[in-house]
Amino acid sequence: METFSVKAFGTEAPEADLQQMTIDRREVTAKDVEIDILFCGVCHSDLHTARNEWHGTVYPNVPGHEIVGRITKVGNGVTKFKVGDLAAVGCMVDSCRECEQCKHGNEQYCENGNVQTYNGHDIHLNKQTFGGYSERIVVDEDFVLHVPENLDLAATAPLLCAGVTTWSPLKHWNIGPGHKVGIVGIGGLGHMGVKLAKAMGAYVVVITTSPSKVADAKRLGADDVILSTDKEQMRANTNTLHFILDCVSAQHDVNAYLRLLKVDGTLALVGAPEHPLPIAAFSLIPARKNFAGSTIGSIKETQEMLDFCGEHAITADIELINIQDINTAYERLLKGDVKYRFVIDMTSLKG
Ligand code: NAP
Ligand code: ZN
Ligand code: ZN
Question: What is the pLDDT of residue 50?
Answer without folding.
Answer: 98
